[in-house]
Design brief:
Chain lengths: 567, 567
């Protein structure tokens, strides 16, 4: 058995190592067109920013170590330029010698990854206009930062790499302007959750401009004048293009393999391409979305590794099938962590899936123990069954833990009713007796049982003073520090004494800081005959990052972007 | 509907609040014999140690706030002394006035908690011999620390409270001797995992003595001379007795309600006692163990809160049933976190359940990103189905997250095969592309599929040089720094060249640092004809805390305590 693997990072390296563990006799040959295999591509921004200090920490395996440990022959700087499927050979171009040769295969594994998009606009190829994918890119940026000590950078694109590079450039002492064509960064989040990230980036001195594209770059002296949407010009010493990646399908296409959405390589549930002797894994393939079942391209390291491992099993005649990608993600943005799993509201709407949602903002651990931070958690679920459809979280502590718990529950096809019952670690430094995930479960179950009716921040614009009364049920002090619109104040603990102030001929919309007092207030009101009541889900803490006084610029002022509540 | 609740901390307070949310009209009356309700009992050690600085942070609700917000009448310093079930009345002793009166109930909720055990040995009631359960105890210890500035303390008992108090007394500048009658602290852990905690406590200057009991305390001047097992005497200014708690069943017993194991109150799956109008919740009741289905007494805050909430649902005619307690726990011990969920090996053996186990020691996050720490994880599973039976983890970072993920998987009755597939948050500051939970899943699946045969540290004592060869497959440098017994060194990367050195007529036992290289070595050997091979699960990192040179005193030298591998 001779297995040829094309691409030596996450998926390819995982496949190679497991192939050897399963079959000591197989001939395993790995081609990598770059200079390095198995480098820590997720770590590159942190090396550039200086958090990771030693470059060699990024190099997890070398061709020598792969040979020694796994008896895998690795040929770097060797590009496979063609696949002859009939003859089962690949054509290899040795980039150092310029020579071309062929290698036979029994099974072929494609792990070509995805390449940064670099659209063809004026100036896109100027010096000091960078992209970041591999060690060569990393070295170029790091070298430039070290030698030229740039004062200003423009980062184009608010995805993972863009946002991580913004933080790391700031960490390296560079003033950063960040632009994003959409009205939010980090597409896995919904808009209102992303607004918390926008606030945080701006608080860290980032000149963040949303709904803003890059149209041209011109050399001006040693610097670059960048023309943004609306002919706004900003000056920068360097530009990082991080506007997304595109599946690297060139070789697959040349070989006549079927492609899939967004230029990805089509694979079945066994990661086999349209040629059963050729597998493909990682960022280049389309997978099925775990929630919707629809095709998706989700370039994530965890799935790439698992797919590589799985292909090794399949090549060795074992049974395995890929059950879809949830899109679980986490991203550090300065002192915030931002995580998500499953589908977001945008995706659920697009796929026509019925859903409901709750927002909670509990403490990351017991509030009386030092260091507790507000954790903002959005949970999406099926309104009939309670099956969990997705979650998003933003906060300074414990975001990864809560998203991991929910991601695990989703894999087990668990429901919000199950989240209520989860028995999670509790001691004051770590959580509360009712963990934030339990709280989200409680709230969702309250909604499902009809114990709580919710309204959402995007609905508030439709309030009509003739028909609706907006009531702030927080304290006088909280109210004085800022409320929503022209809400009247009736603190929660006075509601039972002031029932007469709630009209029975209007809809009453109440809100508190995070939603919990609102729920209590709701229960008091509906059981005292004020039945046309709605509680603002997530309260002021959900509203403020989107619409608050300090956030007028958030979303380019497009506060109407959030769609109306579903029927 | 008049509901009387006895006990105003976790379970009682949760029941009261939810009762009101579900029924605005109910009469809810809560009796608490202490001065405070709803105080942060899990926070008391941290207030004593000074981490929580303000005492009022511990008081989460007051009788006034419960009245204002939930219209619950709270009577503190009122002890219910008797229940007349026939008449449905309770007898109340007002501890301030000394007067006794009766209150009628429709439904009664018992949440009496559990009291610290204070065995009747000589000196147990001397001044400066403390227990810690409530605010009064907390104030006594804090007052004593502040006024008397003790130099030395003896902490008796290595459960949660004992271990947390050890840390907090050290934090407050006190020299601590800690004794525990068993050969390990923190009973939810198995012995070999607890040894990591013993190492850490000793590294922080604690004089930890295992297999050691307290026999007597004598006043000697201003101090206390404590006689330990074997007539060893230690001097201390104060003694904290933290030898465990016992369900407070006095009232239930007086009322003729059925009791259960360990003096707990018997309840059914609806938390109803043998009287259908009387419920009991929290630390005083026996629950069913989620894994074994056997009765268990597990005093934990999370379950207490959930039970209180559930009882409110049931009283309001809603359906609910308690599905058992997993015993998920976490404990901070200096810079370590120690967590567990489900059954440990001791419990599984005791209940005769078939199980297998794996140990892994991966990094808490990507090793190339600063701050990564070794996370030691033990996973117990059903050897036939792969159903997860329990897990334990010890480490400086990310312990709570991994135990929460596994606890969630267990609630979903998931398997180790599911752990392989979990899609968890990955970015370098948070985890690795293969999370420690995935790694444990991979390892367990390798064992289940027969891709790896394991041996455990407790089996090494049975090695016979005539029949077995112990091989250290780490590097020369690691070997030189300390190896196991008289192991020979054959580094992993040289195995293929040195196959002739592995005997075919002996059992070959290989080990590495954490088990992963051992797995790779195992695969190389068995596929090259050396088939009688076993890999030491968890490698040197599992062995060293138990048997390493620095740990001779660990377990009181009783290294033979760990039982032999099951058949």
């Amino acid at each position: 058995m001779k297995v040829v693997i094309i691409g030596g990072v996450a998926g390819g390296a995982s496949a190679a190592a497991r192939l050897r563990r399963l079959d000591e006799q197989a001939e395993i040959l790995l081609f990598e067109r770059g200079e390095y295999i198995s480098f820590a591509n997720c770590g590159l921004p942190y090396y550039i920013g200086g958090t990771i200090q030693k470059r060699n920490k990024l190099l997890l395996q070398t061709p020598e170590s792969m040979k020694e440990r796994f008896n895998v022959e690795v040929r770097v700087q060797c590009e496979v330029t063609a696949i002859d499927r009939a003859r089962k050979v690949v054509t290899v171009l040795d980039l150092t010698s310029g020579k071309t040769y062929e290698e036979r295969y029994d099974k072929l594994v494609l792990s070509p990854g995805a390449a940064p998009m670099r659209p063809d606009f004026p100036g896109s190829m100027l010096p000091n206009v960078f992209t970041l994918r591999n060690m060569a890119d990393c070295d170029a940026i790091k070298g430039y930062l070290t030698e030229s000590k740039p004062a200003r950078a423009l980062v184009v694109g608010g995805g993972f790499i863009g946002v991580e590079m913004v933080e790391n450039l700031v960490h390296a002492g560079v003033d950063v302007t960040a632009i994003e064509l959409a009205d939010q960064v980090l597409a896995p989040l919904d808009y209102e959750m992303a607004c918390m990230v926008h606030q945080n980036m701006r608080a860290h001195g980032v000149d963040l401009r949303l709904s803003t594209g890059l149209e041209a770059i011109e050399q001006e002296g040693a610097g670059l004048t960048c023309t943004l949407s609306g002919r706004v010009k900003v000056f920068a010493d360097m530009v990082l293009l991080a506007i997304g990646v595109r599946a690297d399908h060139a070789l697959a296409q040349q070989a006549g393999l079927e492609l899939d959405i967004k230029g990805s390589i089509r694979v079945d549930e066994h990661m086999a391409t349209s040629d059963p002797d050729i597998y493909a894994v990682g960022d280049a393939v389309a997978v099925s979305d775990f929630v919707s079942g629809e095709k998706a391209v989700l370039p994530l390291a965890g799935p790439a590794n698992r797919q590589g491992r799985m292909v090794a099993d399949l090549i060795n005649g074992r049974e395995a099938s890929y059950e879809g990608t949830q899109g679980t993600m986490i991203c550090k943005v300065f002192d915030l962590s931002v995580g998500a799993t499953g589908n977001n509201e945008k995706q659920l709407r697009a796929s026509g899936r019925a859903y409901d949602k709750v927002y909670v903002h509990p403490s990351s651990h017991a509030g009386y123990y030092p260091g507790a931070e507000t954790l903002s958690l959005k949970l999406l679920f099926d309104p009939a069954s309670g099956v969990i459809l997705g979650a998003q979280a933003v906060g300074k502590e414990g975001v990864d833990k809560r998203i991991d718990v929910i991601a695990t529950a989703m894999r087990g096809r668990m429901t919000v009713q199950d989240l209520e019952k989860l028995e999670l670690c509790y001691a004051p430094p770590f959580s509360s007796a009712k963990d934030p995930v339990n709280m989200a479960g409680f709230t969702a179950c309250n909604v499902m049982k009809g114990d709580l009716r919710q309204i959402f921040i995007e609905d508030l614009k439709d309030l009509d003073p003739e028909k609706d009364l907006l009531v702030d049920i927080r304290t006088q002090g909280e109210y004085d520090a800022g409320t929503i619109g022209n809400a009247v104040l009736i603190p929660l603990d006075s509601i039972r004494d002031r029932l007469a102030e709630f009209p029975k001929d209007k809809r009453v919309v109440i809100f508190c800081r995070a939603g919990l007092r609102g729920y209590i207030g709701y229960r008091i009101l509906v059981q005292n005959g004020i039945t046309n009541v709605y509680n603002l889900s997530g309260g002021y803490l959900t509203w403020e990052p989107v619409y608050g006084a300090k956030n007028k610029s958030c979303g380019g002022g497009k506060t109407t972007r959030i769609p109306k509540e579903k029927a």
